[in-house]
Amino acid sequence: MSRIVVPILTLATAGIHLAYTTTHFDGIMMALSGLGYLTLLALLYLPTRAVRERRRLVRDTLVGYTLLVVLGYVAYGVLTGEWSVPLGPIAKVIEIALIGALLQGRGSDAPYAGRWHRQRGQART
User: Fold this and answer.
1) Distance between CA atoms of residues 30 and 32, nearest Å
2) Where do the domains of the chain lie?
3) 13 within 8 A of 7, measured Cβ to Cβ
4) Are the C-beta atoms of residues 2 and 104 closer than 8 Å to each other?
């Protein structure tokens, strides 16, 4: 299930961040945040061997990145009093759900690599 949910949630939050770049004075930060989500999503699902062997690391990096964005939003809101209603809280709900989906899917990393090796007649590593 997380194979479907993670891309949808990641694309949703990346889209919110990228859409917000034109309407907010911190547009460059929002653009970089959206691009960060898209980059980590691409790394998570790229079918290259280098990425497959580090899928758990990429997944954990996306969890940490998402947590950092949520904490940054809270710190920014506390310091400035600006909470970017309604998109800010909506994005944070999506990001918290993304963290949950990523943590739920952590066990699926190894079987995915194993299926790839079996398809090519190689032993599992």
Assistant:
1) 5
2) 2-119
3) no
4) yes
